[in-house]
Amino acid sequence: MGMAAAAVAVMVILVTSIQTIGGVIDKPIESDSPAKSATALTLSSSSSASASASAPTALSYKTPLAYGSNKLGEKTGELVEQAIATGFRHFVTAGHHQKHNETGVGIGWKASGIPRNELFLQTSFIPFSESHQDFKKQPSDPEELPSTIEEQVRLSIQTSLTALQTDHIDALLFNNFRAKMWDTDEIVKAWKVLEDYVDKGVLGQLGLTSVHDVEWFERFYNSTRIKPTIIQNRFHSNRKYDVPMQETFAKHDIWVQRFWLLNGSSGMGIKNKDMAKIKGVTPAQLMLGFAMSMGSETCLVGTKSLQHMKDDVEIAKCYPALFFDDEERKEYAQKLGMKQPKDQPLPGRSGIDYGNDKTPKCQSTQEI
Ligand SMILES: NC(=O)c1ccc[n+]([C@@H]2O[C@H](COP(=O)([O-])OP(=O)(O)OC[C@H]3O[C@@H](n4cnc5c(N)ncnc54)[C@H](OP(=O)(O)O)[C@@H]3O)[C@@H](O)[C@H]2O)c1
């Protein structure tokens, strides 16, 4: 087979594999906007859509990679626009949050020229507490902030819709301050209001941040009318890389979104740097690709570097071809420090059976 034919064959395998992994059907994004020239990530209909079936109009999308707006400050708009031009389509921000500039996300996607229905916009609600360091009062807020959590949710959603320049938000998460669960009764009260907004089609999916307690989650899950479909958690040794949560995530078809993949205990993926070198990708790319290979995972990144944006988009496209088999994924997990019980297989799988062909199929766009 000539080089060109071989390349086409690999592409066909890759596209087939990306469509198969996670049982999702991909729809390539088409647009006449300037960002068209970049190869965009595809938005995939999520199998968890059924969980929020009562949302009449909201779409349910899943991508392996999302751009988070944490600590981007004044540069948020510019960076979001750049991320869209590079291929990102899913954006994660937070309302009334000290470290997120939600308005910047709105400005960035508007400036990109990409139609709203080709983007997945996600935000979160944090309970209003002026004494808490993550909470930030917004200029449009009344002088006296609402005291009940129900009123706070309504005000927060209205503020987010205005900031994001949209009439609907694809997903909204209840944000637990710094991995400390908020009072359960208050979360339940807030959730009922969020459910009303799903009914109205203003919100798509609902989720929570920082849930590492199986029993708590099962109880909460059973108490809800509209089920949480998303959990956003750190991927970190101090939470056992969520191995204890894996069965629960699978049972409820939870879309797991990960932060601290690079700047946490993986040390930028350095624990597996030798494997990355052999594969011709950066340790950071391999770390992200490993998380993506776990099935329902979405990697959150908030890089300010164009080169890193390109690297991450590249891995999001080729991750099914990154690991040759599950043994290699297990080797990666072990070096990382994940303690996977023997009777609990690592979630997800390597995408393609290459037999004895160990030629790297993912390439970094930079010199390794
Ligand atoms: N729910 C929560 O409590 C919570 C907490 C933290 C974060 N989050 C969410 O997760 C998002 C990501 O936050 P994070 O703390 O995990 O990571 P991050 O803010 O993206 O930081 C990642 C660090 O890794 C570096 N890096 C090196 N290679 C990279 C590559 N290929 N791609 C991306 N970054 C690379 C980045 O530097 P360069 O900028 O130079 O690339 C940056 O310093 C946030 O924006 C936020 O939406 C949620």
Describe the structure.
It is built from eleven helices and eleven strands. It has a single domain (3-336), classed as Alpha-Beta Barrel (TIM Barrel), CATH 3.20.20. Mean pLDDT is 84; it is low at 1-37 and 45-59. Helix content is 35%, strand content 13%. The two termini are 29 Å apart. The strands form two sheets. The chain has an eight-stranded parallel beta barrel, surrounded by four helices. Strands 1-2-3 form a three-stranded antiparallel sheet, with helices on one face. Strand 8, helix 6 and strand 9 (230-234) form a beta-alpha-beta unit. The protein has 368 residues and is α/β, with parallel strands linked by helices. It has helices at 3-20, 76-86, 102-112, 149-164, 184-199, 214-223, 246-251, 273-279, 283-292, 306-318, 326-336; strands at 25-27, 43-45, 61-62, 65-68, 90-92, 120-125, 169-174, 203-209, 230-234, 255-259, 297-301. Helix 9 packs across helix 10 (306-318). The protein binds NADP nicotinamide-adenine-dinucleotide phosphate. NADP nicotinamide-adenine-dinucleotide phosphate is lined by residues 68-70, 92, 209-210, 232, 259-263, 268, 284, 300-305, 308, 311-312.
- Report Rg: 20 Å
User: How many separate domains?
Assistant: 1
| Derived structural class | alpha/beta
Low-confidence stretches: 1-37, 45-59
User: In order across it, which strands form the biggest sheet?
Assistant: 4-5-6-7-8-9-10-11
- What is the overall pLDDT average? 84
Globally, the shape reads: globular
- CATH topology-level name: TIM Barrel
Biggest sheet character: 8 strands, parallel, barrel
Please state roughly what percent of the residues sit in beta strands, choosing from under 5%, 5-15%, 15-25%, 25-35%, 35-45% or over 45%.
5-15%
Secondary structure: helix percent: 25-40%
Bound molecules: NADP nicotinamide-adenine-dinucleotide phosphate
Q: Which CATH architecture? A: Alpha-Beta Barrel
Look at the structure and give the CATH class: Alpha Beta
Number of helical elements? 11
How far the N terminus sits from the C terminus, by CA atoms, comes to 29 Å
